Amino acid sequence: MNLRMDGGDVESFFRSMFTSAPVGVSLASFDGRFMQVNPTLCSMLGYTEDELNQLGLLAVTHPDDLASEMRLLDEMRESERSSYQVEKRCIRSDGSVLHTRLTVALARNATGDAIGGIGFLEDIEHEHRALRLLRDSESRFRSLVQNSSDAVLVVDDECVITYASASCETVLGWPAHELLGWWANDLFGLDGEQCLGPGTGDDVLSGTGQIQRLVTGQDGDQRWVEISVTDQRADPMVAGSVFNCRDVSDRVYAYETLLESQERYRTVVEAVHEVVFQADANGCWTFLNPAFEAHTGFKVADALGRNFLEIIHPDDRPANFQVIQAMRQGLLTEGQLEGRYQARDGSVGLFLGRVRVTRDAGRDVVGFAGVIRDVTQTKEHEIQLSNLSFRDPLTGLANRSLLLDRLEQTLARTRRASANLAVIHLGIDGFRRLNEQFGSIAGDTVLAGVAGRLGGVLRGSETVARVGGDEFAIVSEGVADLSAAHAVASRVATVLAEPFMLEGAERSITFCLGVVLEGPNGGRTSSELLRAAALALGRAKSRGRNEIELCEGETDTTGDGVGQDALAGEMVGALSGGDIVLHYQPSVDLVTRRVTGFEALIRWQHPTRGVLAPAVVMPIAEAADLDEMLAKWAIDRSLDDLESWQALSPTALSMTINLSARQLAMPSVLARVAEAMKRADSAPGRLIVDLTERAVVAEANTSREGLRRLRQVGVGLSLDDFGSGHSSLLFLRHLPISMVKVDPGFVTNIDSDERDRALVAAVVAMADGMGVVTVAEGVETEEQAVTLQRLGCREAQGYLFGRPTSAAEVERLLSEGR
Asked: What whole-number distance in Å separates Cα of residue 477 and Cα of residue 519?
């Protein structure tokens, strides 16, 4: 169809198009004046038609775009171009910037002269905003990639690296620019067409794998790298697969170290003799090492899944179940299992174990783990040692240790009952010659015969013991006086006067007896009483054969109660006046014979009663509540003396003091110890507290708390007269003992009595195994010292090395290098 319009219609048509066009349309002169604008342009820029005509093109153009706009208009005026298109910024009436696209065509008048340009202005703000957002996104992505701790590579379909982030130098050991154009297989150490994956290259490039590779950096160092692949080949902005590379060397090496550690642990666990186990919350085995089968005979595979109680002796199950139940309920975090176990062959053994709870991430108990030791042989050795400690193997009688223990108990009973007791020490006359004449078997026969006769003649309240090679001791309680004690001794002498059969013939053997009477107010210990009886026996032997020596001395050293009260009243003045002093007895190293320390012994130099020993002084002090003051004085004085002597000795010296059970329970005494050590700047172990079994047993709870506090401030603890009480082994096990002192009774005949040597050797070995120093007491001869050294005893104390002496005399001896 042909549409024909006359001149007026054409003009009307174009004017209508100009007015209603959806884009801004304007006619502008070459100098930038608007000659005509349409409503759309006015709306776009926020001006009226008159305002735009008055402002002109240059006024609504952004200053930064003005120069290029004028240049293009000039080129059009000079006929250098007939049109142009630019993106430019316009300034709206409110001052805001509008991004636009301007298309300009040359405008001519009716005569054909160029008069300006007709422009078409499009609003492209949305396009510009989208482009800006895209650029911001690209910038953020690039920043993230460049600042990421992971190295990022982009690899094309040919496995060629087209992009590398800055982190490549840190992670891969190669600068980013060095990697561009590399074949990825070269970087990651692969051959052929593998292209990083065990399958085809496409498998990896499409993001289906995560792999680890050992990468060699530019400097030759190697590191393990974990590679994760994301397929971005469809994204034209990336056009490749993105490789996120992370250095996992520490993780790989840690894992290898863990594997090595687990292997070492497995090797150790399989090799140890103890049973290492794990169990679930119900107590069923989940892991057992081979030692379980070695001890019980049950195969590990058969035991797994079974409850641990099944192997425990029925009588011991309740106690062990209670331990596990307490741990399961959170009352304990670890516990001790002990008792008897039943092996597959029916035999019964003894076990001791430590067990701890295992928890999950929520801190709930999920099981148990621990170690169990077979202590059957250990217990048997303890029993043997106990028997050796308390019984004479030849006669079956109590030995010196058991006698001292029973004598201590008898002393306590008789003092409570205000009664007397007698100690009788009996020795065979000429026993050494008898052994030499008839042989040791005959001598043993005589000893056994004496034991049998004594057992038959003594009453139930009397105790008999063998205390030396040919010596016996009897304790008789409830004797009225010295005459009654003599009657007991005479009864013993009568039964022993009967001949003994030796080599088929009757032979008479004579005996001497020493008798000591102790009253209810006597202050002597069991050791002191036995020593007094031995001295009485010596005096009897000095007079001849078949002699009885009666000793009533020190039956009541202080007299009656009035005498004790008087002494108590004098004690404070004696302390301040210097009548109460400390004497010091040295202990020496048996190898070097150098002094290693001193024991402080309290002495009261009374003007009328003579020198009073600790056995007399301490009961008086306790009765008068002066023992606290006495303890503090002894602590201060002994440590002050020790510090003044240390400069004279080439080796470190220690000081041993004696504290009673009452004093161990006194907070002020314990505080004084800590203060004195701090003041003297004493090293741990230089101050040692001497304990007797009686002191610990008397007030077990309070004294043990005191011992714990002493150990906390560095005080050493010594167990005195070790072996003389039935609890010595228990104390060594449960108390923080650092030194044991072998009772003098085991030392007296150590150079001639095999049994005493065996006992001391056992004590030394046991102490060494527990890291405890052994000191032998009562060493009086060089032969005893040599024997003790040969048995491994480290230190000794006794008259051979020095009697208790004053502080001034100690200082003189040390200054002379003795």
From this structure: 10
